[in-house]
Amino acid sequence: MKVKLKSENVYIACVSLLGVLLFMNHLNPQVEDLSNWVLIYTLVGAILLLNHFNIIIPLSGNTLSMDSSIYLAGLFLFGLKIPLLALGVSSIVFLMIRFKLAWWKHLFNFANYSLMLICTYYTFILTGGTVGETDFPNIMPYALSLSVYFILNVMIMWVYFYLAQKPSLKTIIRTAFQKQLIQEVFTSYLCTLVLALVLTILISQQPIFGIFLFLTLAIMLSFAFKNFFNLYKEEEAKAKRDFLTGLYNHGYFKLRLDEMLSENQKKPFCVALLDLDDFKKYNDANGHIQGDALLKFFGTFMLEKTKDNPFIAARYGGEEFGLVLPDVSKRDAFTFLNKIRKEINDTYFTGVEHSPQGCISFSAGIVEYENGTYSSSELLSKADKALYFAKSQGKNVIQVYKEDQVYHQDCQFAKEIDALEQQLQIFLSKDVYTYQHSKRVFFYATEMSERLNLSIEERRTLILGALIHDIGKLEIPRDIINKKGKLDPHEWEMMKKHVIYGKEIISSIKKYDELLPLIELHHERYDGKGYPYGLKEANIPKLARILCIIDSFDAMTTERPYQKTKTFTEGITELRTCAGHQFDPHYVEPFIQMIQENYGDKLAGE
Amino acid sequence: MVFDGILIAIIIGFIRGGSFKKFADIRCKMGWVFPVLLLLQLVIFYFQNKVEWVGQVSNLSFMFIYVVGLTFLWVNRHHPHFVTIFVGVLLNFIVMAINGGRMPVSLEEAAVIDPQYMEATKNALYAKHTLVTESTKLALLGDIIPLSAPYPREQAISIGDVVMNIGVFLFIQSVMVRKKDKLIASKTTL
């Protein structure tokens, strides 16, 4: 196997080797005076403590350890031997304490310090500095050696990051000249260097007690800065959170979305807008405090569902929620949202049983980012359109934005559809499931009519008939329609009459005469076992046979809270089994094809 | 010195709002070892200058006590900071082992301290100490760190003692003070 050498690894090896060799060369463990060992122990203790109680610089979160001051002061006062020994001992202790850190990082760090110390020492000596002097007759050697220390430190680390990340020239220049970064680096180094001089004076007067004082000061500062930093973090977190739900707030959501757009990435991502269904009604019925509790509950639910993904869930406003799904295609986004929609449907919350859906539910619109999307508001308005479309289908639905779907109003029967929808809206208060069912059957029928070779007249009849086919259920008492569990025989008889009632309602309007067979006969079966007349095969009008398939398929796959229902795949299987008995076999396959092509995302999610 | 460390740790533990209750939950393997060792040490301590043979084997017996103590610490190393205590004791053990079972004490550092203590040290059989001489090996691990005023009890200690005391301190803190979960921290991890 060929081992590929990475340049940063070679670099680390070289620096480490150089540092260790220089260290070995200068190391002299013979310390004549035992009190020097006490000094070394003190320095090591100070270095360890300073590393533990480091100072977190607010905003960036970078840490500043003041151990460099200790090394430098030791260097100026005692020469090379004592700081090097202290470095050796503290490196061993670090190796034991931070055993989880990779060994080469320990080695690199050690070599880094040893290189810096040795070079600084020689600069100090060569520029005329004297070890142990505290009068500072000439400040030059100190200033120069401190600069060497600083420059070496920056260079060694910088070359490593350059090799490891290989940034482009543009990024290098941009990061190198960030005002904040330069300011931070410069001040923190200056701070360390000045402290080194302060410490030199302190230690020369009172070695142990001086270091003790210095440490006390450093630890106090560390606590103060840590508190400050925590406060900053806390406030920062609060500033981007919505207080009630714990989700991100509107501002942060928009900000992140704009950031994602400006990154101009090639990976897909989706944006979804969610809206709790009938929240106003819930509020009116249960009071605003309970409404807040529901929002909070939903917020926690969203947090729970998104915590394992990089999704950004936010409260967009009122009872609207926003979701950014990075690296997710619209199909997966649909699957995800549909799953959590069903989950929240099955989750009970106080007072929700009186809402029209009988459960907590939301509608959502999804839009996938495409290259060339102009702005975040464009994405959001598309998602909003899809959301409104979902709402118009009777709520508790997820819709993916498609160019054409939202503009179905443009189609040639728009006016008539609108008129019939007015009639249908009575169901919203009586039986929302029939409303949703009618809307879905209407969409299936629209898609079916494009697929089959129908005349314009037939298309109109099928589409309008599908929309209005269950209108007769208006006459059925609510107790029967909303009854949970099996219907009694006499109730069932009444239920069957809805086809007759429907016919009577619509027959009062002359221009809808063509729809009457569909309304009256959509429960006839191909084998003659249907109602109301028990017609057989070709005796049933063609459009009624088609509507029967659509109607049955939707009835099978309609989901209800707290109940298991057939999935689309199971529905398709059921259609195939019943083809020739209940359904006209000519139209079953085209319908299944349509479902597979247009609702693939739903099939895939099962 | 160990008792000083324990006392300081307990006081600071109380200041930080800790309590003794958690000590009841500590489960140690070979828990009987500790009191037995203490007793044995006291017995030798008491008799070594009175009964001759005890004095002669005292070096060896101290070594034995260290080995048993180290074993005890090692089998219980799952407790927080027991490894630190172990390292501290080990450092002391090493320097004693290569210097004939006695802890070398630096004469200069001892001079800071009570002259009587130094006299007794020179007389060899006091406790378990000996003076640092030219032949002392690894003197850097010996009792060379002077504790003097403002510290209330003047004595010389070794780096092993320091490490051990840090371990004892951290262990007592970790038992007495339980960290409360921070609300903010859990909230920010989305």
Protein described:
The complex is a heterodimer of chains A (606) and B (190). Chain A is mostly helical and 606 residues long. Chain A has 26 helices and seven strands. In chain A, the strands form two sheets. In chain A, strands 4-5-3-6-7 form a five-stranded mixed β-sheet, sandwiched between helices. In chain A, strands 1-2 form a two-stranded antiparallel ribbon. In chain A, a hairpin with a 6-residue loop joins strand 1 (55-56) and strand 2. In chain A, helix 3 (67-78) runs antiparallel to helix 4, helix 5 (103-126) packs antiparallel against helix 6 (140-165) and helix 17 packs across helix 25 (585-598). The model of chain A has no long low-confidence stretch (mean pLDDT 83). By secondary structure, chain B is mostly helical. In chain B, 56% of the residues lie in helices and 6% in strands. Chain B contains eight helices and four strands. In chain B, strands 1-2 form a two-stranded parallel sheet. The chains are: A mainly alpha (606), B mainly alpha (190). At the A-B interface, helix 2 and helix 9 of A face helix 8 of B.
